[in-house]
């Protein structure tokens, strides 16, 4: 679904679009905060991931069925690459937040996704303007510096798991872009990722509690399911560059949420790394 030819909205319609876009960005950032809140409250990573998958599959499946497109949920061969990459994202995301703060996790995820998308463009031999290469290099340097030696370095295992999640989400996005019909692709992928989530839970069983269940359902059905559905509703009304740039706010919102709800500290290393990563991504987007 492209937004490249969307005319700029005006008046009250424009304000409504701004409000809906801001709501989507808050929903995306809330996934990080909800996951951290659940794990700090005693829930397990694999149980949180499984409940999130089930809740997201139920909500997205309902939306697709109401549109009369239930046939898109069938387990065709084309679905499985999306299932594998979405599962990698969900599991890596959940397990990474056992040790990572919300803002740092979101920054690693966002930067890793952009680098994965850049690598996909290189492998596909897409034209790469010098400005885009420079931007990707700066973003990568920001992530490397964030995870380099030092007192404020994030947990290495947590960072590696979040980079695995970023690889999963980046590949899932590339697969979805080729397939089209993003809402149907997302719904089918969530649905058939549930058995893989259950298998992961069987290998790494953990306990949960009522707080963890509620937060996982919110993360799956609301901030993931409804968040993705709303995003694909507003996306056609945004210019392509605008749609990409607004996502730069997600790590910052997640950081603010972590500070507000989890009393997470704001470190100088995070601030400078965020400036490099987000600045590099913004520079890369100017080249598109």
UniProtKB/TrEMBL annotation:
Superkingdom of the source species: Bacteria
GO terms under cellular component: membrane
Keywords on record: Membrane, Transmembrane, Transmembrane helix
Xref: Pfam families: EamA
Subcellular compartments: Membrane
EamA domain location: 157-285
Membrane topology, record value: Multi-pass membrane protein
The UniProt record lists the keyword Transmembrane helix: yes
Main location class: membrane
Transmembrane segments annotated in the record for this chain: 45-66, 78-97, 103-124, 131-151, 157-175, 187-204, 210-231, 243-262, 268-285
InterPro entries: AA-Vitamin_Transporters (IPR050638), EamA_dom (IPR000620), EmrE-like (IPR037185)
Protein name: Threonine/homoserine efflux transporter RhtA
Species of provenance: Marinovum algicola
């Amino acid at each position: 679904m492209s937004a490249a030819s969307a005319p700029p909205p005006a008046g009250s319609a424009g304000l409504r679009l701004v409000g809906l876009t801001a709501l989507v960005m808050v929903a995306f950032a809330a996934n990080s905060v909800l996951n951290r809140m659940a794990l700090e409250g005693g829930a397990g990573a694999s149980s949180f991931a499984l409940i999130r998958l089930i809740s997201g599959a139920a909500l997205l499946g309902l939306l697709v069925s109401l549109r009369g497109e239930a046939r898109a949920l069938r387990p065709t061969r084309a679905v499985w690459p999306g299932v594998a990459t979405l599962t990698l994202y969900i599991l890596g995301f959940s397990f990474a937040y056992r040790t990572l703060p919300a803002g740092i996790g979101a920054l690693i995820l966002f930067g890793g996704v952009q680098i994965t998308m850049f690598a996909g463009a290189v492998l596909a031999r897409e034209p790469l303007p010098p400005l885009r290469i420079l931007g990707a290099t700066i973003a990568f340097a920001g992530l490397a510096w964030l995870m380099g030696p030092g007192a404020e370095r994030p947990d290495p295992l947590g960072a590696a798991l979040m980079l695995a999640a970023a690889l999963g989400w980046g590949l899932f996005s590339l697969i979805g872009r080729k397939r089209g019909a993003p809402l149907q692709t997302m719904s089918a992928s969530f649905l058939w990722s549930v058995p893989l989530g259950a298998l992961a839970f069987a290998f790494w069983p953990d306990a949960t509690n009522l707080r963890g269940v509620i937060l996982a359902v919110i993360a799956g059905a609301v901030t993931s399911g409804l968040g993705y559905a709303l995003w694909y509703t507003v996306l056609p009304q945004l210019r392509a560059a605008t749609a990409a740039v607004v996502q730069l706010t997600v790590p910052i919102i997640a950081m603010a949420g972590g500070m507000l709800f989890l009393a997470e500290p704001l470190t100088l290393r995070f601030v400078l790394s965020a400036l490099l990563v987000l600045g590099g991504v913004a520079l890369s987007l100017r080249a598109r």
